[in-house]
Amino acid sequence: MTPSPPADGWDEAPCALLVLRADGSLLEVNRRLLDWVGRDRDELLGGVRVGHLLTVGGRIYWETHLAPLLRVEGRLDEVALDLNGADGRLPVLLSAVTHPGSNGSGTVVHVALSSAKERTRYERELLAARRAADDAAASVQVLQDATAALSRAIGVTAVADAALSAAVGPLGAAAGTLWLVDGDGALVAHSSRGEAPPPGPPRRVLLHDGHSLDRAATRPDGRIVVPLLGSAALQGVLSLAARDGLGDEPLDLAMLTALGQQAGLALDRAQLYEQSASVAHELQRALLAVEPPDDQRFAVATTYRPGVERLEVGGDWYDVFLAEEGVLSLVVGDVVGRGLPAASAMGQLRSAVRAVAGAEAGPAGLLSRLDRFVERVQAATMATIAYAELDLVGGRLRYACAGHPPPLLLPANGPPRLLWGGRSTPLGAYVAAGQRGEAVVQLEPWDRLLLYTDGLFERRDRALDEGLQLLTDTAAELSTVPLRDAVQSLTARLLKDERSRDDVCVLLISWLGGAFERQLSADLSALSAVRRALAGWLLDSGVAVDARHDLVLAASEAITNAAEHGGRSLASARVTLRARIEQTERGTEQVVLQVQDQGEWRPENSSDERGRGLTIMGALMDDVSIDNVGGTTVVMTRRVDRAHA
Amino acid sequence: MSIEIVPGPADVRVLEAGGEIDIAVVALLMDRLDALVTGADAVVLDMSPVSFLDSSGLRLVDRLARECGVRAVPFRVAAAHGSPSRRVLEIVGMTGDLVTADRDAAEAAVRAERLTQQSTAANTQTVPA
Q: Out of A159, A262, A378, B68, which residue is the most buried by the measure of CB atoms under 10 Å away?
């Protein structure tokens, strides 16, 4: 026999039970409901509709949505509503079912309301937990982004920037300053964001009571301090100001601590990088610090520009030195690669060139020897080099290019032209024996020569020919500008479009001619000094000692002659001595001495002495000619065999 | 440039010239030449140490020769073969009797000439009018 339902089940049910008429008015209610709404039975059963028991919003919802639904569906399941309870809003879940009714009383609706207070609390907690989880995920993402930015940063400044950007940004600080620990252990303000950098000298005291700082913390004055701990020691401190507007959340100290740790390690790396970068830069600076020989027969200007976007050193270099007396070596080269290996290979190659250069080998011979050298120095393989030897006395230029852009000749008179002779493959590239060639060009006094690396004219989006033409045209425009300005202007103009490009090395040399010239006042007080200078020039030019003595004697005679003719008493009268070395038609070389004065040959001043002078000149020189038009010019020549070609 | 009396035998005055002798220098020395030969019985000019000599410098030699000639004093020039002064003297054809290769030869030459002078004078004197 089934037990009958408890008699007081209706009133004692844990939920509120109602029976409604079809129009929504209350037919029956249980005690639970009366307790919940705090009203009497009589009150409610006098025609009150169920809507009145709800909050305003709930009532509207009931009337516009739920009641119609009930009529259509005949039921409602677990609808969340708020009851106008005795102690305030009471969240409930409403379920209802329509019943045709017994005893002919018409349709009734059975309604059960169960309290949703706990459930709502549970839902709210769930939502809060999910929001917290989302926030945490977002924070982790922020931290990941910051860490990625820190690891991309190259150099201390970039790391500081990344750390400040993360803190005064996604991590919510209003403003901040990054301090770095210097060599003495004091803190120096490095950079700030959102606030002015603090003035004053480095600070000794850590910004937190002197206690050692191992995580982010709030100072009594409200600032947040975050230690940037490297692997071995404190690298710096981030000092942050929190936002203080309404609704701003306080800064997440745990996140900031994590950021601080990442930033500290990034600073470790940045310092190591800067040290090694500076070693490489120092090396490169030392290698490029070339002191050209001091010689009146040429002038040279050089410049070096590091590549854009690159923080590492490159492998470009230039060099100018005397291969031997009177022979000037000019070098511009380009080693493959970057960084310390390239810089060190470049240094070795530069030394090798200096060691090997000498007139017997010449440019082709030098390149052949360098081929053998790079077999042993792997990093120098495939280097390109333009090498030239200039005879400072006669102006003859021998040159060769191993895979390097052609030198540009800028004649004093005439259009510029690229020197395409003497070309062969880069160093160490396959080259058959004897394949290293060279070419020769004769310079005239005041001609210029430009050597450079490909960064000067090569661009990824421009044809090589176009670049070379631009180089040629620009150099031609600057042909009369003083050397140092010319090389700077040329480089600046060609690098105006500073999109990504390689390093650039430029060397511009002007041959001033091998001639000798001196002027003396007619009192000849400087005669001895001029003799010495001429002897020096002849020595530099490779003239043998006996010939030197004879030439100096002949010059001295001619000068004495000129002074006596020109009027020694005139203080303003001047005598000019010029000497040069010429190629004759027969292919030999001769020294040409020319002495000029403004006076006239006065035969009555001829004396035995002057006669002797002419006798001496005639005996020592191959040819003496005297021209009396507009002053007196004596030209004397003598064949010489010089010590080298 | 310098020209100085140097220690030598009692009967020959030795002048040593050194440095560079050119037009700028010669003018300065001319005034001293008189004093350099006065009172000497025989004069030798040693030019081997001279590092430079041109036609103007030869004036010095000319002048010394003339001063000695006026005083009837034998005069020789010593110039080593290959030295700068020798070369110039050769070119202008001033070698011959005037120039010897070294100081000793020059001293011998002036002594010989002195003896000849003295014996000629003696001979001249002993012949009755």
A: A159
Residues contacting A366, CB < 8 A, separation 6+: A353, A356, A357, A387, A400
Give CA angle at A458 (A456, A463), nearest 5°: 140
Torsion of CA A387, A391, A397, A399, to 10 degrees: -20
Per CB distance under 8 Å, which residues of A are interface residues toward B? 523-525, 527-528, 531, 549, 552-553, 556-557, 560, 563-564, 609-610, 612-613, 615-616, 619-620
E strands along B37-123, which residues? 43-46, 50-53, 75-78, 99-100
Helix (H, G, I), strand (E, B) or coil at A200: coil
pLDDT at A359: 65
Give the whole-angstrom CA distance, residue A109 versus residue A115. Answer: 19
- Nearest by Cα to A449 from A404, A511, A370, A539: A511
Rounded Cα–Cα distance for residues A332 and A324 (Å): 19
Please enumerate in sequence order all residues whose Cβ is within 8 A of that of A420, keeping only pairs 6 or more positions apart, or say none: A406
Q: What are the φ/ψ torsions at residue A332 (nearest 5 degrees)?
A: -135, 130
Hey, what are A502's tokens?
A: 């390689």
Q: Which residue has the tokens 């000692």?
A: A545
Distance from C-alpha of A393 to C-alpha of A645, rounded to nearest angstrom: 10
Q: Report which residue type is found at A614.
A: L
Average pLDDT over residues A511-528: 82
Give the minimum alpha-carbon distance from A609 to chain B in angstroms, rounded to a whole number. 6
**Nearest chain B residue (CA) to A614:** B55
- A445, A396 in Cβ contact below 8 A? no
| pLDDT recorded at residue A599 | 60
- Asked if residue A210 has pLDDT above 70, the reply is no
Report the DSSP beta bridge partners of residue A8: none
Cα separation, A16 vs A9, in Å, equals: 11
- Nearest of A310, A283, A286, A208 to residue A253 by alpha carbon: A208
For B21, name the nearest residue in chain A, comparing CA atoms only. A528
Gap between the Cα atoms of A562 and A264, Å rounded: 83
Contacts of A73 (CB under 8 A, 6+ apart): none
Q: How far apart are CA A483 and CA A98, in angstroms?
A: 106
In DSSP notation, A291-359 reads -----TTEEEEEEEEPPTT--S--SEEEEEEEEETTEEEEEEEE-SS-HHHHHHHHHHHHHHHHHH--T
Tell me how far apart the alpha carbons of residues A209 and A88 are, in angstroms, rounded to a whole number: 51
Given this model, what pLDDT does residue A3 score? 65
Cross-strand bridge partners of residue A331? A319, A387
Q: In this predicted model, what pLDDT tens digit does every residue of B57-85 receive, in sequence order?
A: 898 898 899 989 999 999 999 999 989 99
Report the half-sphere exposure of B66 (CA within 13 A, side-chain side). Answer: 9
Tell me the Ramachandran region of residue A34: left when phi exceeds 0, alpha when psi lies from -120 to 50, beta otherwise.
alpha
Residue to test with chain A: of B30, B53, B54, B56, most A Cβ within 10 A: B54
Q: What is the spatial order of strands in the sheet that A516-521 belongs to?
A: A516-521, A574-583, A589-597, A632-640, A623-627
The residues pairing with A597 across neighbouring beta strands, listed in sequence order, are: A575, A632
- The H or E element spanning position A387 is strand A384-391
Give A434's contacts (C-beta < 8 A, 6+ positions apart).
Answer: none
Mean pLDDT of A284-301: 80
Predicted pLDDT at A604: 43
